[in-house]
Amino acid sequence: MLMLPTQCTGAARRPFELAATALAALAFLAGGEARASFTENIGVDPTAMSLGNAVTADPPGTASIHFNPAGLSRLQGKWKSDTFFGASIKPYASFTQPEGFDIGGWKDDPVAGTSTGPVRQSIFLPGIGVPKAKLPFAAAAGLGFSFNQPGSPWTFGTATYVVQGVGIDRTTDPNDPARFDGQRVNIQRLVLASPSVAYKVSKTLSVGVSIPIAHQGFALDTDMRMPNKLLGIIGKLQDAWCGDNGNPVDTFAFGLCGGGKEGRLRPFNKIGGMHFEMTAPADPTINIGVLWEPSDRFSLGAVYQGGSQSVLTGKYTFNAEPMLDRFVRGMYSSLLGPVVASMFGFPTSIPAIQSGNVTMTLPYAEHIQVGLKVKPIDRVQLNVDANWSNWKRWDKLTFQFDKTINLLEMARVFGQADPSKLIIPRGYKNTINYNFGLQVKVTDAITLRAGYEPRKSSVGENKIDLISPLPDLTIKSIGLGYETREGLRIDAAASYASGKFDIPADGSCNLNCTNFFNAVYNPYAGLDVAGGIRIRYFGVTITKPF
User: Fold this and answer.
1) Degrees (nearest 5) of the Cα angle 74, 76, 80?
2) What is the pLDDT of residue 42?
3) 129 and 254 Cβ atoms separated by less than 8 Å
4) How far is 25 from 10, CA to CA, in rounded Å?
5) Within 10 Å of residue 152's Cβ, how many Cβ atoms?
6) Which of 61, 368, 427, 433 has its CA 20 to 30 A from that of 319?
7) β-bridge mates for residue 210, sequence order
8) For the segment 157-212, what is each residue's pLDDT rounded down to a tens digit?
9) Rounded mean pLDDT of 387-414?
10) Is the dihedral of CA 12, 16, 17, 23 positive or negative?
């Protein structure tokens, strides 16, 4: 079985005094506004899941490599862990047109009154990319090893696991209104190897370090529209100036009619689509942990999980609808149109397809977590953790292309000054939250667990969108552990997370703002958007000596 070191009996006489001090420290750490995690620790280890990920002071087996590398010191001998996960992520949203809705004179958005449709899951396979198959749930597997010579203070280990996994596929319904804000989204970070070492400083104190080497994948496939007041006003001017059959005088003016009816601007029409698929094949970070266990009834733990500036490279494709191409061609075919078009930086034409290479820096947020374990009675254990994550680093995402994108030249007037770059604002916030876990040892072989995580979203309501539809979440988990006399352990867990949002018009400038310079990117400008997300996930770990 997994063995704990012999504990110091002197400190054991004071566990509840120590617990009170530790609880006060945790309360002080999280005393400010609690803004919780984005995607971290959603499904790394079933035992941790079932305890609300409050395991820094009681890290489970080889998963210590992630949660607190110092916990490897508790594993004597050689151990192997096999983990299997499944997850279903179901975001949803509905769109309502408020009273007084008006986008440059257009008062009826066809998206109003609709709701998003079915959602499937997708995964990012290293070396392959995102398969086209629509999955009812996403599956993953993990593997961990630890090595210790009996009597040695050193323990070594490595593990493979997923630390970040979001895969949303909305392609089942080609008319899904969410297609304008992430038809398919994948953000996945898979740790391929994590060389780790822990050292037992004394009978009660251990320290540890691990170096997770991760494959970071990112994919985004979305249609685009820009319901902006400028497009609406120009479209109304075209209708008034050109009429049904054009205007012969227009050739000597600005060319508003030169593109024909296909070149008339409509703020609610699809303007094109974009597809990205990028990877960072090997991105290392560092985890540093400390674990103090003065008695079996009480322990404290802390871990620092380092961040990184992951540089991703890959391919992009932009598809353009005829509307904007016909519009600019009409302007450049007139007398005065080229003057106005060049003032706004419009291209002379917009090809139907542009593709090439793209680079992006995707920050991976550093994370600090401290935890407490208390056993008020022999068979009952309480865990509580407080953690902080630096999601403020996701202020914006910048995509650097290998050439000028003609479609993006149309966005110069809205603040996209360099058409070889696409800047998507994010504006996320740093995070602090609590985790809680309860464990009851029913018999020597059977353990029951329960976890609770009230996560306040790092994606504030003023920044939420359908690419990252993560409002405040409540996560509830249950778990079961079974251990044989020979040392075989089977741990299973199931979790359910849910949250809702209700964003009035102009409530989020990543979603539905109508300001003139918020065209990139607010595909539901002026609409009220209500929705939420439901996440169901489960996992099983089998641990045995080898």
Assistant:
1) 95
2) 76
3) no
4) 22
5) 12
6) 427
7) 196, 287
8) 999 999 988 899 999 999 999 999 999 999 999 999 999 999 999 999 999 999 99
9) 89
10) positive
The three-point CA angle 175-354-316 to 5° equals: 75
End-to-end Cα distance, the chain: 12
Q: Would you say residue 36 has pLDDT above 50?
A: no
**pLDDT band of 466, cuts 50, 70, 90:** very high
Give the whole-angstrom CA distance, residue 180 versus residue 522: 9
Q: What is the DSSP pairing of strand 396-401 with strand 353-364?
A: antiparallel
For residue 62, the one-letter residue type is T
Rg (CA), the chain: 27
Residues 6+ apart with CB under 8 A from 308: 283, 284, 285, 363, 364
Of 452, 500, 457, 537, which is closest to residue 89 (Cα–Cα)?
537
Per-residue model confidence as pLDDT tens digits over 512-522: 999 887 778 89
- Regarding beta strands 120-121 and 154-169, do their DSSP bridges make them parallel or antiparallel, or are they unpaired? antiparallel
What is the distance between the alpha carbons of residues 523 and 187, in angstroms, rounded to a whole number? 21
Q: How far apart are CA 236 and CA 262, in angstroms?
A: 14
The average pLDDT across 244-253 equals 92
User: CB-based contacts of 54: which residues, under 8 Å, 6+ apart?
Assistant: 371, 383, 384, 385, 435, 436, 437, 451
3-state SS assignment for residue 341 = helix
- Contact yes or no for 147/156 (Cβ under 8 A): yes
What is the pTM assigned to this prediction? 0.87
Complete DSSP assignment for 53-111: T--TTS--GGGHHHH-GGGGGG--SEEEEEEEEEEEEEEEEEEE--TT--BTTB---TT
Tokens in use for 210?
A: 């691990």
CA–CA separation, 456 and 36 (whole Å)? 4
CA distances from 280 to 79, 164, 167, 213, 216 (A): 30, 14, 17, 11, 5
**pLDDT per position as a tens digit, 250-283:** 999 999 999 999 999 999 999 999 999 999 999 9
Q: What is the three-class DSSP state of 169?
A: strand
Confidence grade of residue 15 (pLDDT, cut at 50, 70, 90)? very low
In angstroms, the Cα distances linking 475 to 53, 84, 352, 452 are 10, 20, 45, 6
**Do the beta carbons of residue 191 and residue 280 sit within 8 Å?**
no
Which among 222, 267, 330 is positioned nearest to 516, based on CA atoms? 267
| Confidence (pLDDT) at 4 | 33
DSSP letter for 463, please.
T
The single-letter code of the amino acid at 68 is: N
Positions of E strands within 257-392: 270-284, 287-295, 298-305, 308-320, 353-364, 367-377, 380-389
Compute how many other C-beta atoms are within 10 angstroms of the C-beta atom of residue 140. 19
Closest CA to 213 of 124, 291, 310: 310
Residue 313, classed as helix, strand or coil, is strand
